[in-house]
Amino acid sequence: MRFWQKLTEYLFYLFVFLFPWQVKLILRPAATNFNEIGFYFTQCLLLVIILLFLILKLRERNENETISPLWYLLAGLELFVFISVLLAPDRFLALYHYLLFLLALGLFFLTREGTAVFNYQDSFFNKAKIIYSFLAGLLLQAVLGIYQFLSQGSFAFKYLGLALHDPAVLGTAVIETASGRWLRAYGGLDHPNILGGVLALGLLLSAYLLARKKMLNNARNLLESVFLFLFYFIALSALFFTFSRAAWLAFAVGLLILFFRLRRQKDRWVFSRFVALLFFSLTLILIVVSPFHELVAARVSAETRLEQKSISEREQYLGQAATLLKSNWFLGVGLGNYTVALALIEPGGEPTAYQPVHDVLLLLWAESGLISLFFFLAFLYVLFKKNRREAYALVLGGALLVLLFFDHWLLSLPFGVLFFFFILGLI
């Protein structure tokens, strides 16, 4: 039994480390990732871990264990998400996204409940090891993103799920200035906004750990502190090179919340270390920004052609969402079928022109209906209320809220759904 417990535990740490890499087998190709159907290597690994975990949990079950209200709310959300699958124009695509949703719930269960399931001295999953495994995997993504921006190119390697990104090709995420088209950092993910969002949350976790870390107690603490410093400043540079405004804002909001939360704590050394970290962060940002101030100005002022196009497209997406909601407000158009439904009401456009609305709440409402949105919001409310005393919970929650309002990838893409529930599991 001990062997299977340890195997499941370290397989989970391996999954978290490999999580950002997008190695997949495409079963049904499509013009965009929103309509594509495929299986990711990490999804297969996660499924094995969940099955092992459930078997071990049944052997160690506690009959007096109470069920948290969170699970009732998730059950209600799951029910109406399933109903939307039955109404979808592309039911195969909807079923695929429904299975991803169930897998995401399994990941949330593993991450949240895995430390309190078994009755032996050491916890089943160590939350610190989960976070360090995640940050170690994300560090590789950050290094890759920095390389992509500085070299203004990327290479394709299917065995790591890496795609080719050429700034000269239309459709590639770039910043356009008088000096030309500049490739934004993708890492191994589908878009710079995704890399930026993941880096923002990883940076907030590392900032919290650095502020609370007692560095000189022993060799292990010193080694962990060195890793956290290394990760933080490399990831901060990579976050800048994504040029994701939503990710920048999410990181800033998270830091602001963490500032006020740590300021209220009795341990003044923790707050002092955090202020020192902010000072060094600002110094690094000024150093990195200086050679690329033209790109920052273009991204912030939003006056160039591509930035104006981006803003007008987001306004267009909001109008399309309103059109879909007029006739599908109660049960939605079907999970994962937002762009399919758009193509039906606005036929004749290029497949890549159909994009989800850049707001997760509106997207969930349009795809799965009003009651699904209610259960989702109630779930988030109960989760954060229950963990409101934890400083990092509100920090991650504030950053997630920004990403929910300004992008769609946390719901529209397979990686995003799993990542969203993974972060919620850490709270």
Walk me through this protein's architecture.
By secondary structure, this protein is mainly α. It has one domain (2-306, 358-426). The chain is built from 17 helices and four strands. It has helices spanning 2-18, 41-59, 69-87, 91-113, 127-151, 192-212, 219-242, 245-263, 268-289, 293-301, 305-328, 338-345, 360-368, 370-386, 391-406, 409-412, 414-426, and strands at residues 24-28, 37-40, 174-177, 180-183. The strands form two sheets. The protein has a two-stranded antiparallel ribbon. A two-stranded antiparallel ribbon has the order 3-4. A hairpin with an 8-residue loop joins strand 1 (24-28) and strand 2 (37-40). Helix 7 (219-242) runs parallel beside helix 9 and helix 8 (245-263) packs antiparallel against helix 15 (391-406). The longest helix is centred in the N-terminal third of the chain and has 25 residues, at 127-151. The radius of gyration is 22 Å and the shape is globular. It starts with a helix and ends with a helix.
Nutshell version of this structure?
This protein is about 70% helix and about 5% strand.
- Described by the principal axes of the CA atoms, the overall outline is globular
Q: What structural class results from the helix and strand content?
A: mainly alpha
Helical residue percent band: 55-70%
Order of strands, main sheet, comes to 1-2
Number of strands: 4
Number of folding domains?
Answer: 1
Mean pLDDT: 89
The tally of helices reads 17
SSE topology string: HEEHHHHEEHHHHHHHHHHHH
Distance between the termini: 29 Å
Computed over alpha carbons, the radius of gyration is 22 Å
> Tell me about the biggest sheet?
2 strands, antiparallel
- Strand percentage lies at under 5%
* Unreliable runs: 117-121
